[in-house]
Amino acid sequence: MSPTLLLLLALGLGLAGWLAARARAWSFRRASPDGRLASLPSYHAWYVALWIVLPVVIFVAAWSAIAPGLVTQAVLASPAADQLPAFGFQRQTILNEARAVATGAAQGVFNPLANEFVEPYRQAIGKYNWIGIIVTVLIAFLGGVWAFLRLKPDFAARNRVEKIVMAILLGASLVAILTTLGIFVSLVFETIRFFGMVNPIDFLFGTHWGPDPMANAANPDPTRYGAIPLFWGTLFIGAIIAMIVAIPLGLMSAIYLTQYANPKLRAWVKPALEILAGVPTVVYGYFAALTIAPAIRDFAISLGASSASSESALAAGLVMGVMIIPFVSSMADDSIAAVPQAMRDGSLAMGATTNETIRRVLVPAALPGIVAGVMLAVSRAIGETMIVVMAASTAANLSANPLESMTTVTVQIVAMLTGEGSFDHPATLSAFALGFVLFLVTLGLNFIALRVVKRFREAYE
Amino acid sequence: MVTVVHPNLTDTDAKMSARDVSVFYGEKKAIDNVSIDIPTKYVTAFIGPSGCGKSTFLRTLNRMNDTIPSARVEGEIMLDGEDIYRSGMDVVQLRARVGMVFQKPNPFPKSIYENIAYGPKIHGLAESKDELDAVVEKSLRRAGLWEEVKDRLQDSGTALSGGQQQRLCIARAIAVDPEVILMDEPCSALDPIATAKIEELIDDLNGRYAIVIVTHSMQQAARVSQRTAFFHLGKMVEYGRTSDIFTNPLEQRTQDYITGRYG
Ligand SMILES: Nc1ncnc2c1ncn2[C@@H]1O[C@H](COP(=O)(O)OP(=O)(O)OP(=O)(O)O)[C@@H](O)[C@H]1O
Ligand SMILES: [Mg+2]
């Protein structure tokens, strides 16, 4: 029986417990002299229902992890197991075929020997299904009875439910944190493997990038693993060109919206601006590749540039800049709006114009928040993949000319992982090292930005 | 009902004069037909129960109400005989001539020096760094703050104590050499000692600038002002010499208010 069915069963039992507990709480209520309970009947009901469902959920999670192992063990204990090859691929194939037939996923087998195991599998699966169902019912029953017996007129079911809910929420947030940690750890492992093959110094400071996935994996050429051109391409596109677009436009729109726009206009423009952040980046990618890049190339050629390419850093950077305008503007907007009105009044009362007030008082006072917004935007930009994949190029190029094609860390991660190299080839593993560097840099930027924002919030409280 | 102006009030040199001024917030009338002459040489106090429109009226005197979109002013307000609400009036210049100090000290998050230098810089009042230094020192001296901060001019203005911050704000207002200084409850966020310092300062400044102060403290009005106007429900009920208003009010409502019977 599949975990889904077990869970449905648990929900059914939970519902039964819910109804029973509510009925009981109502009977308490009718019996009590003032018609009041310490907690509402629905809290009693939820308390019991949670005590039924949660243990079952935990059991089902554990059971679905261990049951297949138990089934295999039982099958191997059957008399036919003696005929199996001792180890290896074939043994596994035979068992898989038998299991597939036993569960009805396949009709017949290739390997005649597998037929011997179909029946043992059927029996084992059936047996453990029954065990699963019985244990589920048992756990649900025990949990339900235990909780049900605790119900009393003065039972603080409400506080208990509160605690259980809190635990569930905590569990949910742990999932996110543990996932991050897991990602980080796996990244670190692969990175260490890579650095075992290529010296970190060569990687971090080398100026030529061109891993060859077909070369001998045991003896990589360290001069082909210099990531500086990628770091440069990333910085140039994400932190320089994109910011030259995003900072002035984002800041000016924030100033306009907070200081000049009338409320009606603001109510329209601000969400419209924020929609920019919701456009899928791949759409920006089309736009960059199909519209902006050719336009820039034609423009460059008309100016007489010879090296104009249709995959320019400028195209990717410009579009990326537009994409992150909302990040800059919404943070700037928030922090300018957070500057106390008294500051603005003080300046206006000195005879400053709105414009002078903005330049000399509001923006300096809001600067930490604005800077934090820019840093978040930078970290977003350098982690961005789609736009550069579509509009920049895959050729590493260490150049300051925005019209030339360049590549970035993220593009190379994609290129290396989808390349022809085997998984343990240094060319493939370099993707993890690149990802690791990117992870550290964006983590650092986000960390600093959040600290700055926090300090800034405190400044006015 | 019209305002009762004490007959012995014979000021002839009005720095500012309001004629039939009404102020609306949207449809709501917050000030109803107020006329008053604010003398050049004296401190004028506005008193009255909360919400009667003292701040509103004060803010019309340097057009700070312009910053509130729903506010609308009717009537005439003259500064040296010139209507400050006429079209073509330079509000920026007006506010340099009629400075304002707020209830809560609001120094800019800049250095003490930059706080004072702010006005002179935007109005181009100092040609050189030396001149600016001189203006800063003079303003801080007048505000009685120089001795306390002269060694830490580069420290942030927000790092000062509340009373020092308020004197900094007064110094900031003085730095552009205004003709009138409007103060809206300048001591309400301060302790008695800091309050005494500000009152002393107002005394010192008296005569050099026309000063208008809004206050909730009868004692303060009695101590620092020579003229007092009593506001009630958007109207100015009574106006006269401070000594007369406090000892010999002509209106029952004034009498009730200053004896603490309501408000
Ligand atoms: N920005 C505004 N928008 C709408 N109504 C306002 C605004 N500011 C003040 N009012 C209203 O105008 C009236 C006068 O307010 P004002 O602040 O001038 O009173 P006040 O005498 O200064 O009171 P307090 O002594 O409490 O400071 C009040 O009824 C107030 O609700
Ligand atoms: Mg007020």
Automatic annotation (TrEMBL), chain A:
The keyword Transmembrane helix applies. Its main location: membrane. The chain crosses the membrane at residues 44-66, 130-149, 164-185, 230-251, 272-293, 313-340, 361-382, 431-453. Residues 232-449 form the ABC transmembrane type-1 domain. It is a multi-pass membrane protein. Gene3D superfamilies: MetI-like. Keywords: Cell inner membrane, Cell membrane, Membrane, Phosphate transport, Transmembrane, Transmembrane helix, Transport. It is found in: Cell inner membrane; Cell membrane. InterPro entries: MetI-like, MetI-like_sf, Phosphate_PstC, PstC_N. PANTHER family: PHOSPHATE TRANSPORT SYSTEM PERMEASE, PHOSPHATE TRANSPORT SYSTEM PERMEASE PROTEIN. Part of the binding-protein-dependent transport system for phosphate; probably responsible for the translocation of the substrate across the membrane. Belongs to the binding-protein-dependent transport system permease family. CysTW subfamily. This is Phosphate transport system permease protein. It comes from Qipengyuania polymorpha.
